[in-house]
Amino acid sequence: MDRLKKKIVEEGKVLSPSVIKVDAFLNHQIDPVLMKEIGEEFASRFKELGITKVLTLESSGIAPAQMTALSLGVPAIFARKKKSLTMKDHLYTSKVHSFTKQETNEISISKDFMTEDDHVLILDDFLANGQAAKGLIDLIEQSGASIAGVAIVIEKGFQDGGRLLRRQGIKVESLATLSSLEDSTITFETQEVSS
Ligand code: G4P
Ligand code: NA
Ligand code: NA
């Protein structure tokens, strides 16, 4: 997706050889026009699969998940990282360890919103080591629902998550895949079909 890549290059800030800050359009301030295009692009890549729900993790997955769900005509659900006041039990829960942040979060969704009849698209803003996706897959499996695929806005191709998921036979679609952030330079994988 050329518009997304242009945004990453023009507004992203390389913080280290493995981390890029995209607070200007995705992780803090949100570009709604870009989110709409992201939603339409994911919908076109997954529309034939009979998806009934889009599942993400709060907070930064919500904006692109919401627009993708809108384009697919289905609800979006975000797994919570903290127990809410009104959501104490009747939950599926899993643990997600972040190597980047060196912390473990318990994530949860209500049993009310996912059943064995659902076919679920997992969506997240970043794919790094794949731990968030793994936790979301665990929640889906607990509910008896099936996994349609994984939609990622920015994949860090130099980390293991994408390989781990694809090796399990899961369809993973990333809109921009970074091959390197070395020397403060943003490099994309080139074999992607740009759209
Ligand atoms: P993993 O799930 O693929 O294993 O990822 P990891 O633990 O490394 O990621 C932890 C958090 O850091 C996630 O956000 C993820 O989106 C974010 N993240 C990972 N790599 C980058 C990066 O290079 N740049 C930016 N901007 N974020 C990155 P989170 O803690 O869930 O926060 P939220 O933004 O969703 O609230
Ligand atoms: Na994030
Ligand atoms: Na995230």
UniProtKB/TrEMBL annotation:
* Species per Swiss-Prot/TrEMBL record: Halobacillus trueperi
Q: Name one GO molecular function term.
A: xanthine phosphoribosyltransferase activity
Its pathway, per UniProt, is: Purine metabolism; XMP biosynthesis via salvage pathway; XMP from xanthine: step 1/1
**Cited function:** Converts the preformed base xanthine, a product of nucleic acid breakdown, to xanthosine 5'-monophosphate (XMP), so it can be reused for RNA or DNA synthesis.
Per UniProt, which keywords does this protein have? Cytoplasm, Glycosyltransferase, Purine salvage, Transferase
What protein is this chain from?
Answer: Xanthine phosphoribosyltransferase
Protein family per UniProt: Belongs to the purine/pyrimidine phosphoribosyltransferase family. Xpt subfamily.
- Give the record's subunit note: Homodimer.
GO BP annotations of the record are: purine ribonucleoside salvage; xanthine metabolic process; XMP salvage
Q: Which Pfam families match?
A: Pribosyltran
Q: Does the keyword Iron apply?
A: no
Where 5-phospho-alpha-D-ribose 1-diphosphate binds, per the record, is at A128, N129, G130, Q131, A132
Task: Detail which positions bind xanthine.
Answer: N27, K156
Which compartments is it annotated to reside in?
Cytoplasm
Which parts of the sequence belong to the Phosphoribosyltransferase domain? 42-157
GO cellular component annotations of the record: cytoplasm
Q: Gene name? A: xpt
Q: What is its main location?
A: cytoplasm
